[in-house]
Prior knowledge:
By secondary structure, the protein is α/β, with parallel strands linked by helices.
Amino acid sequence: xxxxxxxxxxxxxxxxxxxxxxxxxxxxxxxxxxxxxxxxxxxxxxxxxxxxxxxxxxxxxxxxxxxxxxxxxxxxxxxxxxxxxxxxxxxxxxxxxxxxxxxxxxxxxxxxxxxxxxxxxxxxxxxxxxxxxxxxxxxxxxxxxxxxxxxxxxxxxxxxxxxxxxxxxxxxxxxxxxxxxxxxxxxxxxxxxxxxxxxxxxxxxxxxxxxxxxxxxxxxxxxxxxxxxxxxxxxxxxxxxxxxxxxxxxxxxxxxxxxxxxxxxxxxxxxxxxxxxxxxxxxxxxxxxxxxxxxxxxxxxxxxxxxxxxxxxxxxxxxxxxxxxxxxxxxxxxxxxxxxxxxxxxxxxxxxxxxxxxxxxxxxxxxxxxxxxxxxxxxxxxxxxxxxxxxxxxxxxxxxxxxxxxxxxxxxxxxxxxxxxxxxxxxxxxxxxxxxxxxxxxxxxxxxxxxxxxxxxxxxxxxxxxxxxxxxxxx
Length: 475
Protein backbone atom coordinates (compact mmCIF):
# COMPACT_ATOMS: atom_id res chain seq x y z
CA UNK A 1 0.00 0.00 0.00
CA UNK A 2 1.54 3.31 -1.07
CA UNK A 3 2.10 6.37 1.06
CA UNK A 4 -0.63 8.11 -0.94
CA UNK A 5 -3.17 5.67 0.43
CA UNK A 6 -2.04 6.12 4.08
CA UNK A 7 -2.30 9.89 3.59
CA UNK A 8 -5.91 9.39 2.52
CA UNK A 9 -6.56 7.46 5.72
CA UNK A 10 -5.08 10.20 7.89
CA UNK A 11 -7.04 12.82 5.97
CA UNK A 12 -10.42 11.11 6.13
CA UNK A 13 -10.49 8.89 9.23
CA UNK A 14 -11.23 11.67 11.78
CA UNK A 15 -14.43 12.65 9.98
CA UNK A 16 -15.52 9.03 9.60
CA UNK A 17 -14.76 7.92 13.16
CA UNK A 18 -16.73 10.79 14.69
CA UNK A 19 -19.83 10.17 12.58
CA UNK A 20 -22.73 7.94 13.71
CA UNK A 21 -22.62 4.47 12.18
CA UNK A 22 -25.51 5.16 9.80
CA UNK A 23 -24.08 8.48 8.61
CA UNK A 24 -20.57 7.38 7.65
CA UNK A 25 -21.28 7.42 3.95
CA UNK A 26 -22.40 11.03 4.07
CA UNK A 27 -19.46 11.94 6.31
CA UNK A 28 -17.01 10.34 3.86
CA UNK A 29 -18.58 12.18 0.95
CA UNK A 30 -18.36 15.53 2.75
CA UNK A 31 -14.79 14.91 3.92
CA UNK A 32 -13.63 14.04 0.41
CA UNK A 33 -15.42 17.02 -1.06
CA UNK A 34 -13.86 19.36 1.49
CA UNK A 35 -10.39 17.93 0.85
CA UNK A 36 -10.79 18.51 -2.90
CA UNK A 37 -12.29 21.98 -2.53
CA UNK A 38 -9.51 23.19 -0.22
CA UNK A 39 -6.76 21.67 -2.34
CA UNK A 40 -5.58 19.13 0.22
CA UNK A 41 -6.34 16.58 -2.47
CA UNK A 42 -4.84 18.24 -5.53
CA UNK A 43 -6.18 18.00 -9.06
CA UNK A 44 -4.98 14.87 -10.84
CA UNK A 45 -4.18 12.91 -7.66
CA UNK A 46 -5.17 9.25 -7.90
CA UNK A 47 -7.38 8.05 -5.07
CA UNK A 48 -7.18 4.59 -3.50
CA UNK A 49 -9.39 1.88 -4.95
CA UNK A 50 -12.73 1.46 -3.24
CA UNK A 51 -11.51 -1.78 -1.67
CA UNK A 52 -8.30 -0.18 -0.33
CA UNK A 53 -9.99 2.90 1.10
CA UNK A 54 -12.76 0.85 2.70
CA UNK A 55 -10.12 -1.26 4.46
CA UNK A 56 -8.25 1.84 5.62
CA UNK A 57 -11.36 3.47 7.07
CA UNK A 58 -13.09 0.36 8.41
CA UNK A 59 -16.25 0.89 6.36
CA UNK A 60 -18.09 -1.21 3.80
CA UNK A 61 -16.76 -1.06 0.26
CA UNK A 62 -20.21 -0.02 -0.94
CA UNK A 63 -19.98 3.09 1.25
CA UNK A 64 -16.81 4.20 -0.55
CA UNK A 65 -18.23 3.27 -3.96
CA UNK A 66 -21.34 5.38 -3.34
CA UNK A 67 -19.24 8.38 -2.24
CA UNK A 68 -16.99 8.10 -5.31
CA UNK A 69 -19.98 7.82 -7.62
CA UNK A 70 -21.68 10.87 -6.12
CA UNK A 71 -18.57 13.07 -6.28
CA UNK A 72 -17.87 11.94 -9.84
CA UNK A 73 -21.39 12.97 -10.80
CA UNK A 74 -20.83 16.37 -9.17
CA UNK A 75 -17.55 16.94 -11.03
CA UNK A 76 -15.17 16.62 -8.06
CA UNK A 77 -13.72 13.29 -9.21
CA UNK A 78 -13.00 11.74 -12.61
CA UNK A 79 -13.26 7.97 -13.11
CA UNK A 80 -11.73 6.25 -16.13
CA UNK A 81 -11.50 2.56 -16.79
CA UNK A 82 -7.94 1.37 -16.41
CA UNK A 83 -6.66 4.47 -14.60
CA UNK A 84 -8.80 4.49 -11.45
CA UNK A 85 -10.45 7.48 -9.81
CA UNK A 86 -8.68 10.82 -9.71
CA UNK A 87 -9.38 14.29 -8.39
CA UNK A 88 -10.75 16.55 -11.14
CA UNK A 89 -8.58 19.45 -12.25
CA UNK A 90 -9.54 23.04 -11.44
CA UNK A 91 -11.89 22.38 -8.54
CA UNK A 92 -9.97 23.81 -5.57
CA UNK A 93 -11.74 26.70 -3.80
CA UNK A 94 -10.23 29.95 -2.71
CA UNK A 95 -8.84 29.83 0.83
CA UNK A 96 -11.42 30.70 3.44
CA UNK A 97 -11.74 34.44 3.82
CA UNK A 98 -10.13 35.18 0.43
CA UNK A 99 -13.20 35.03 -1.75
CA UNK A 100 -16.09 32.82 -2.79
CA UNK A 101 -15.52 29.19 -3.78
CA UNK A 102 -15.26 28.25 -7.41
CA UNK A 103 -17.69 25.79 -8.90
CA UNK A 104 -16.23 22.41 -9.83
CA UNK A 105 -15.51 22.58 -13.54
CA UNK A 106 -16.76 19.92 -15.86
CA UNK A 107 -14.16 17.99 -17.77
CA UNK A 108 -13.04 20.01 -20.78
CA UNK A 109 -14.09 18.90 -24.22
CA UNK A 110 -10.90 19.63 -26.22
CA UNK A 111 -11.97 21.59 -29.29
CA UNK A 112 -8.95 23.87 -29.52
CA UNK A 113 -7.18 23.60 -32.89
CA UNK A 114 -3.58 22.71 -33.61
CA UNK A 115 -3.32 19.06 -32.57
CA UNK A 116 -3.91 15.69 -34.23
CA UNK A 117 -5.37 12.69 -32.47
CA UNK A 118 -2.65 11.39 -30.19
CA UNK A 119 -4.67 8.17 -29.88
CA UNK A 120 -4.06 7.64 -33.61
CA UNK A 121 -0.28 7.55 -33.14
CA UNK A 122 0.95 4.26 -34.70
CA UNK A 123 2.69 2.96 -31.59
CA UNK A 124 3.34 -0.58 -32.81
CA UNK A 125 4.62 0.51 -36.22
CA UNK A 126 6.76 3.25 -34.65
CA UNK A 127 8.33 0.80 -32.20
CA UNK A 128 9.14 -1.53 -35.08
CA UNK A 129 10.61 1.38 -37.06
CA UNK A 130 12.68 2.43 -34.05
CA UNK A 131 14.13 -1.06 -33.68
CA UNK A 132 14.80 -1.39 -37.40
CA UNK A 133 16.27 2.10 -37.66
CA UNK A 134 18.65 1.50 -34.76
CA UNK A 135 19.68 -1.88 -36.13
CA UNK A 136 20.57 -0.26 -39.44
CA UNK A 137 22.87 2.38 -37.97
CA UNK A 138 26.61 1.96 -38.20
CA UNK A 139 28.61 2.45 -35.02
CA UNK A 140 30.00 5.72 -36.37
CA UNK A 141 26.47 7.07 -36.81
CA UNK A 142 25.96 6.96 -33.03
CA UNK A 143 28.37 9.87 -32.69
CA UNK A 144 27.25 13.51 -32.99
CA UNK A 145 24.80 13.75 -35.89
CA UNK A 146 25.29 15.62 -39.12
CA UNK A 147 23.71 18.99 -38.24
CA UNK A 148 21.89 18.97 -41.59
CA UNK A 149 20.33 15.61 -40.73
CA UNK A 150 20.83 11.90 -41.26
CA UNK A 151 21.70 11.32 -44.91
CA UNK A 152 19.23 8.46 -45.26
CA UNK A 153 16.35 10.53 -43.90
CA UNK A 154 17.18 13.52 -46.09
CA UNK A 155 17.11 11.27 -49.15
CA UNK A 156 13.74 9.81 -48.15
CA UNK A 157 12.31 13.26 -47.43
CA UNK A 158 13.47 14.69 -50.75
CA UNK A 159 11.78 11.82 -52.61
CA UNK A 160 8.61 12.05 -50.52
CA UNK A 161 8.26 15.83 -50.86
CA UNK A 162 8.78 15.67 -54.61
CA UNK A 163 6.21 12.90 -54.95
CA UNK A 164 3.54 14.30 -52.60
CA UNK A 165 4.06 18.08 -52.46
CA UNK A 166 5.75 18.95 -55.75
CA UNK A 167 8.83 20.24 -53.93
CA UNK A 168 11.95 20.61 -56.07
CA UNK A 169 14.85 19.44 -53.90
CA UNK A 170 17.68 16.96 -53.63
CA UNK A 171 18.82 15.41 -50.36
CA UNK A 172 21.55 18.03 -49.99
CA UNK A 173 18.92 20.79 -49.83
CA UNK A 174 17.01 19.25 -46.90
CA UNK A 175 17.77 20.24 -43.30
CA UNK A 176 16.23 18.20 -40.48
CA UNK A 177 15.03 20.20 -37.44
CA UNK A 178 12.95 19.72 -34.32
CA UNK A 179 9.91 21.35 -35.94
CA UNK A 180 8.49 24.45 -37.58
CA UNK A 181 9.40 26.96 -34.90
CA UNK A 182 13.02 25.87 -34.81
CA UNK A 183 13.12 26.09 -38.59
CA UNK A 184 11.75 29.65 -38.53
CA UNK A 185 14.14 30.59 -35.73
CA UNK A 186 17.16 29.37 -37.70
CA UNK A 187 16.05 31.25 -40.81
CA UNK A 188 15.32 34.39 -38.76
CA UNK A 189 18.83 34.39 -37.32
CA UNK A 190 20.36 34.14 -40.79
CA UNK A 191 18.09 36.85 -42.21
CA UNK A 192 18.96 39.15 -39.32
CA UNK A 193 22.66 38.66 -40.03
CA UNK A 194 21.96 39.63 -43.65
CA UNK A 195 20.40 42.93 -42.71
CA UNK A 196 16.68 42.19 -42.69
CA UNK A 197 14.82 44.25 -40.11
CA UNK A 198 11.19 43.23 -40.71
CA UNK A 199 9.32 40.04 -41.57
CA UNK A 200 5.80 40.01 -42.98
CA UNK A 201 3.19 37.59 -41.68
CA UNK A 202 -0.46 36.89 -42.45
CA UNK A 203 -2.66 39.22 -40.41
CA UNK A 204 -4.30 36.20 -38.79
CA UNK A 205 -1.71 33.70 -37.59
CA UNK A 206 -0.32 31.91 -34.57
CA UNK A 207 0.57 34.78 -32.22
CA UNK A 208 3.63 32.90 -30.98
CA UNK A 209 5.06 33.59 -34.43
CA UNK A 210 5.04 37.31 -33.62
CA UNK A 211 6.84 36.62 -30.35
CA UNK A 212 9.43 34.44 -32.03
CA UNK A 213 10.25 37.02 -34.69
CA UNK A 214 10.36 39.84 -32.16
CA UNK A 215 12.69 37.72 -30.03
CA UNK A 216 15.07 37.74 -33.00
CA UNK A 217 14.83 41.54 -33.22
CA UNK A 218 12.42 41.86 -36.13
CA UNK A 219 9.55 44.23 -36.66
CA UNK A 220 6.47 42.21 -37.65
CA UNK A 221 4.38 43.44 -40.61
CA UNK A 222 0.84 41.95 -40.81
CA UNK A 223 -0.46 41.45 -44.36
CA UNK A 224 -4.17 41.43 -45.19
CA UNK A 225 -6.04 38.30 -46.22
CA UNK A 226 -9.16 37.66 -48.27
CA UNK A 227 -10.92 34.64 -49.68
CA UNK A 228 -7.94 34.03 -51.99
CA UNK A 229 -5.36 34.08 -49.20
CA UNK A 230 -2.47 36.49 -48.72
CA UNK A 231 -2.78 39.83 -50.59
CA UNK A 232 0.52 40.03 -52.47
CA UNK A 233 0.06 43.72 -53.38
CA UNK A 234 -0.35 44.47 -49.67
CA UNK A 235 2.80 42.47 -49.01
CA UNK A 236 4.76 44.63 -51.44
CA UNK A 237 3.61 47.75 -49.62
CA UNK A 238 5.14 46.56 -46.33
CA UNK A 239 8.67 46.86 -47.73
CA UNK A 240 9.61 43.55 -46.09
CA UNK A 241 11.80 41.14 -48.04
CA UNK A 242 10.71 38.05 -46.13
CA UNK A 243 7.24 36.65 -45.44
CA UNK A 244 5.83 33.64 -43.58
CA UNK A 245 2.81 32.09 -45.30
CA UNK A 246 0.56 29.06 -44.82
CA UNK A 247 -0.27 28.75 -48.49
CA UNK A 248 -1.88 25.30 -48.70
CA UNK A 249 -4.22 25.80 -45.73
CA UNK A 250 -4.10 29.24 -44.14
CA UNK A 251 -3.92 29.07 -40.37
CA UNK A 252 -6.47 29.63 -38.97
CA UNK A 253 -8.92 30.64 -41.73
CA UNK A 254 -8.45 27.50 -43.80
CA UNK A 255 -8.39 29.18 -47.23
CA UNK A 256 -5.89 28.09 -49.87
CA UNK A 257 -3.68 30.61 -51.63
CA UNK A 258 -5.21 31.15 -55.09
CA UNK A 259 -3.10 29.94 -58.05
CA UNK A 260 -2.76 33.51 -59.36
CA UNK A 261 -1.63 34.68 -55.92
CA UNK A 262 0.88 31.84 -55.75
CA UNK A 263 2.45 32.95 -59.02
CA UNK A 264 2.38 36.58 -57.87
CA UNK A 265 4.09 35.62 -54.61
CA UNK A 266 6.86 33.80 -56.47
CA UNK A 267 7.27 36.78 -58.80
CA UNK A 268 7.47 39.16 -55.82
CA UNK A 269 10.21 37.06 -54.22
CA UNK A 270 12.27 37.10 -57.43
CA UNK A 271 11.84 40.86 -57.96
CA UNK A 272 12.53 41.80 -54.35
CA UNK A 273 15.33 39.32 -53.85
CA UNK A 274 13.15 38.13 -51.00
CA UNK A 275 12.41 34.93 -49.14
CA UNK A 276 9.06 33.16 -48.81
CA UNK A 277 8.96 30.94 -45.71
CA UNK A 278 6.28 28.39 -46.62
CA UNK A 279 4.82 26.69 -43.56
CA UNK A 280 3.18 23.54 -44.95
CA UNK A 281 1.98 22.38 -41.54
CA UNK A 282 -0.96 20.06 -42.41
CA UNK A 283 -1.20 20.00 -46.20
CA UNK A 284 -1.47 16.19 -46.26
CA UNK A 285 -5.04 16.38 -44.94
CA UNK A 286 -7.51 17.40 -47.63
CA UNK A 287 -11.02 16.08 -48.17
CA UNK A 288 -13.04 18.00 -50.76
CA UNK A 289 -10.45 19.64 -52.99
CA UNK A 290 -7.64 18.65 -55.29
CA UNK A 291 -4.12 18.67 -53.86
CA UNK A 292 -2.14 21.90 -54.20
CA UNK A 293 1.57 21.68 -54.89
CA UNK A 294 3.89 23.70 -52.71
CA UNK A 295 4.78 27.26 -53.71
CA UNK A 296 8.42 26.17 -53.41
CA UNK A 297 8.19 24.43 -56.77
CA UNK A 298 7.54 27.80 -58.45
CA UNK A 299 10.66 29.53 -57.11
CA UNK A 300 13.06 27.10 -55.38
CA UNK A 301 15.77 29.77 -55.03
CA UNK A 302 13.44 32.09 -53.11
CA UNK A 303 11.28 29.76 -51.00
CA UNK A 304 12.22 27.96 -47.79
CA UNK A 305 9.78 25.08 -47.46
CA UNK A 306 8.91 23.88 -43.91
CA UNK A 307 7.28 20.63 -42.80
CA UNK A 308 6.61 18.90 -39.49
CA UNK A 309 5.37 15.67 -37.93
CA UNK A 310 3.51 17.55 -35.19
CA UNK A 311 0.22 17.50 -37.11
CA UNK A 312 0.54 14.12 -38.81
CA UNK A 313 2.11 11.92 -36.10
CA UNK A 314 2.38 13.77 -32.77
CA UNK A 315 4.19 16.80 -31.36
CA UNK A 316 6.13 14.49 -29.03
CA UNK A 317 8.19 13.14 -31.93
CA UNK A 318 9.90 16.55 -32.36
CA UNK A 319 10.88 16.16 -36.00
CA UNK A 320 10.53 18.66 -38.81
CA UNK A 321 12.40 19.66 -41.94
CA UNK A 322 13.30 22.52 -44.23
CA UNK A 323 14.14 22.71 -47.88
CA UNK A 324 16.53 25.67 -47.89
CA UNK A 325 17.60 27.77 -50.91
CA UNK A 326 21.24 27.18 -51.80
CA UNK A 327 22.23 30.77 -50.94
CA UNK A 328 21.20 30.25 -47.28
CA UNK A 329 22.00 26.60 -46.72
CA UNK A 330 25.52 26.80 -45.32
CA UNK A 331 24.57 29.49 -42.81
CA UNK A 332 21.44 27.62 -41.72
CA UNK A 333 23.32 24.37 -41.17
CA UNK A 334 26.09 26.14 -39.24
CA UNK A 335 23.47 27.82 -37.05
CA UNK A 336 21.88 24.44 -36.44
CA UNK A 337 25.23 22.95 -35.45
CA UNK A 338 25.93 25.73 -32.96
CA UNK A 339 22.37 25.70 -31.65
CA UNK A 340 21.98 22.05 -30.59
CA UNK A 341 24.46 19.88 -32.53
CA UNK A 342 21.64 18.35 -34.54
CA UNK A 343 18.53 16.23 -34.15
CA UNK A 344 18.64 12.80 -32.46
CA UNK A 345 19.96 10.24 -34.94
CA UNK A 346 17.78 7.56 -33.35
CA UNK A 347 14.58 9.51 -34.06
CA UNK A 348 15.74 10.28 -37.57
CA UNK A 349 16.60 6.66 -38.29
CA UNK A 350 13.19 5.53 -37.06
CA UNK A 351 11.34 7.99 -39.27
CA UNK A 352 13.56 7.20 -42.27
CA UNK A 353 12.60 3.53 -41.94
CA UNK A 354 8.93 4.41 -41.38
CA UNK A 355 8.93 6.56 -44.51
CA UNK A 356 10.94 4.15 -46.66
CA UNK A 357 8.79 1.10 -45.84
CA UNK A 358 5.48 2.88 -46.51
CA UNK A 359 4.40 3.20 -42.87
CA UNK A 360 3.97 6.95 -43.13
CA UNK A 361 1.82 6.72 -46.26
CA UNK A 362 -0.38 4.08 -44.60
CA UNK A 363 -0.72 6.22 -41.49
CA UNK A 364 -1.74 9.25 -43.56
CA UNK A 365 -4.34 7.27 -45.50
CA UNK A 366 -5.83 5.89 -42.29
CA UNK A 367 -5.90 9.18 -40.40
CA UNK A 368 -7.22 11.12 -43.41
CA UNK A 369 -10.21 8.78 -43.47
CA UNK A 370 -10.64 9.11 -39.69
CA UNK A 371 -10.46 12.89 -39.72
CA UNK A 372 -12.85 13.18 -42.62
CA UNK A 373 -15.45 11.15 -40.69
CA UNK A 374 -14.92 13.37 -37.66
CA UNK A 375 -15.22 16.53 -39.70
CA UNK A 376 -18.44 15.26 -41.29
CA UNK A 377 -19.87 14.38 -37.88
CA UNK A 378 -19.06 17.86 -36.58
CA UNK A 379 -20.65 19.56 -39.59
CA UNK A 380 -23.77 17.40 -39.35
CA UNK A 381 -24.19 18.17 -35.66
CA UNK A 382 -23.69 21.89 -36.27
CA UNK A 383 -26.23 21.91 -39.09
CA UNK A 384 -28.78 20.29 -36.79
CA UNK A 385 -28.17 22.19 -33.56
CA UNK A 386 -26.42 25.47 -34.45
CA UNK A 387 -27.38 26.16 -38.07
CA UNK A 388 -26.57 29.87 -37.88
CA UNK A 389 -22.93 29.22 -36.92
CA UNK A 390 -21.44 29.07 -40.40
CA UNK A 391 -18.42 26.80 -40.89
CA UNK A 392 -15.49 27.85 -43.12
CA UNK A 393 -12.21 26.26 -44.08
CA UNK A 394 -13.75 22.80 -44.06
CA UNK A 395 -12.15 21.27 -47.17
CA UNK A 396 -8.84 20.39 -45.53
CA UNK A 397 -6.87 20.30 -42.31
CA UNK A 398 -7.84 19.48 -38.73
CA UNK A 399 -10.05 22.43 -37.75
CA UNK A 400 -12.93 24.60 -38.89
CA UNK A 401 -13.79 28.26 -38.33
CA UNK A 402 -17.33 28.87 -37.05
CA UNK A 403 -18.59 32.33 -37.90
CA UNK A 404 -20.80 33.72 -35.14
CA UNK A 405 -23.72 36.15 -35.34
CA UNK A 406 -22.61 39.73 -35.97
CA UNK A 407 -21.86 41.66 -32.81
CA UNK A 408 -20.78 38.58 -30.83
CA UNK A 409 -17.69 39.03 -28.67
CA UNK A 410 -15.85 35.86 -29.65
CA UNK A 411 -13.29 36.14 -26.84
CA UNK A 412 -16.05 36.47 -24.24
CA UNK A 413 -17.90 33.55 -25.79
CA UNK A 414 -14.77 31.36 -25.72
CA UNK A 415 -14.30 32.20 -22.03
CA UNK A 416 -17.96 31.39 -21.35
CA UNK A 417 -17.63 28.06 -23.15
CA UNK A 418 -14.51 27.25 -21.13
CA UNK A 419 -16.54 27.77 -17.95
CA UNK A 420 -18.91 25.13 -19.31
CA UNK A 421 -16.12 22.64 -20.01
CA UNK A 422 -15.63 23.36 -23.73
CA UNK A 423 -12.19 24.47 -24.89
CA UNK A 424 -12.20 26.56 -28.10
CA UNK A 425 -10.15 29.49 -29.44
CA UNK A 426 -11.64 32.83 -30.56
CA UNK A 427 -10.65 34.00 -34.03
CA UNK A 428 -9.67 37.36 -32.55
CA UNK A 429 -6.85 35.60 -30.66
CA UNK A 430 -5.01 35.30 -33.98
CA UNK A 431 -5.10 38.99 -34.92
CA UNK A 432 -7.44 41.49 -36.57
CA UNK A 433 -10.48 39.51 -37.72
CA UNK A 434 -13.16 40.70 -40.12
CA UNK A 435 -15.92 38.81 -38.32
CA UNK A 436 -16.43 37.12 -34.93
CA UNK A 437 -15.75 33.40 -34.91
CA UNK A 438 -14.41 30.53 -32.88
CA UNK A 439 -11.85 28.09 -34.22
CA UNK A 440 -12.66 24.46 -33.48
CA UNK A 441 -10.35 21.48 -33.78
CA UNK A 442 -12.05 18.13 -34.31
CA UNK A 443 -9.19 15.65 -34.71
CA UNK A 444 -9.08 14.44 -31.11
CA UNK A 445 -12.75 13.52 -30.67
CA UNK A 446 -14.75 10.59 -32.02
CA UNK A 447 -17.93 11.31 -34.01
CA UNK A 448 -19.98 10.46 -30.92
CA UNK A 449 -17.98 12.85 -28.75
CA UNK A 450 -18.29 15.57 -31.38
CA UNK A 451 -22.07 15.24 -31.34
CA UNK A 452 -21.91 15.54 -27.56
CA UNK A 453 -19.61 18.57 -27.88
CA UNK A 454 -22.05 20.39 -30.16
CA UNK A 455 -24.91 19.58 -27.81
CA UNK A 456 -22.85 21.11 -25.00
CA UNK A 457 -22.15 24.14 -27.17
CA UNK A 458 -25.86 24.57 -27.85
CA UNK A 459 -26.72 24.22 -24.18
CA UNK A 460 -24.00 26.68 -23.15
CA UNK A 461 -24.95 29.48 -25.54
CA UNK A 462 -28.72 29.15 -25.20
CA UNK A 463 -31.35 30.51 -27.62
CA UNK A 464 -30.48 34.24 -27.15
CA UNK A 465 -26.96 33.76 -28.50
CA UNK A 466 -28.00 31.90 -31.61
CA UNK A 467 -28.91 34.27 -34.43
CA UNK A 468 -28.33 34.69 -38.10
CA UNK A 469 -24.95 35.80 -39.40
CA UNK A 470 -25.41 38.65 -41.84
CA UNK A 471 -24.31 37.84 -45.37
CA UNK A 472 -21.24 36.03 -46.60
CA UNK A 473 -17.95 36.76 -44.88
CA UNK A 474 -15.42 39.14 -46.39
CA UNK A 475 -12.70 36.54 -45.94
